[in-house]
Amino acid sequence: MKKITATGQSVEAAVESALAQLNSTRDRVEIEIADEGKRGLFGLFGSRQAIVHVTLLADPIEESLHFLKKVSEEMGVQADILIQRQGKTITFLLSGEKIALVIGKRGQTLNALQYLTQLVVNRHAKQYLNVVVDAEGYRERRNETLILLATRMADKAVRTGKAVSLEPMPSYERKVIHTALMNDRKIKTTSHGTEPYRYLVITPIQ
Fold it and tell me: Can you tell me the distance from the alpha carbon of 172 to that of 157, in angstroms, rounded to the nearest whole number?
């Protein structure tokens, strides 16, 4: 974060001066008024300029991008990162050679990166943001796999008449399965356990 002190004939003028020096806007800074100043007699005698301290806040997306690049480089991966924003969801799309290292077994490394990036972005954001970290379209392929798994396990639960427990999954993966089976009236899905070992149980309805 960068902090400067600026002066002006009024608080507003001092703030505008600081913003010009920082090449920024009000929504990206914190403003502290050190002295509101004083207008002198006839605007001349006894006047005192206003003083403000203005701090340029870290940009949450830039900080997250820097974090992802640094971690990828430490893993030996030179990743190209594309950023997409839709409402309160920020998606980082990684591509490049050796990208499988970033994904890891069953996406475990990618999931860990997403969790850590979520922490980074919301440490600097003024409002809560959702983060998705994807690599070479892995999330879409994983979702397709999860939907197939959901259908297969639901059929098994109905066929055997016994509840089926799935392996622990992150919350957004559990949501994919919940959503895939929500209209199946032969079964119900419930979550059990505590993070990061929370898992789904598919139970047949008798």
Answer: 22
Sheet strand arrangement including 2-8 = 2-8, 50-56, 29-35
Q: How far apart are CA 159 and CA 68, in angstroms?
A: 45
| DSSP assigned state of 168 | P
Residue reference for tokens 């392929």:
141
Strand locations in 36-88 (E): 50-56, 80-86
Neighbours of 138 (CB within 10 A): 18
Q: What is the CA radius of gyration of the chain?
A: 26
- What is the arrangement of strands in the sheet containing 89-95, beginning at the earlier edge strand? 80-86, 89-95, 130-135
Distance CA 13, CA 32 (A): 14
CA distance 156 to 184: 13
| Local structure of 119: helix, strand or coil | helix
Q: What is the DSSP letter of 62?
A: H
DSSP H or E run through 146: helix 138-160
Residues 6+ apart with CB under 8 A from 71: 113, 116
How does pLDDT run across 79-93, given as a tens digit for each residue? 999 999 999 999 999
Instruction: Name the pTM for this structure.
Output: 0.72
Residue written as token pair 């430490």: 74
What is the b/e burial string over 27-48, where b = at least 16 CB atoms within 10 angstroms of the residue's CB? Answer: eebeeeeeeebeeeeeeeeeee
| Per-residue pLDDT, 44 | 57
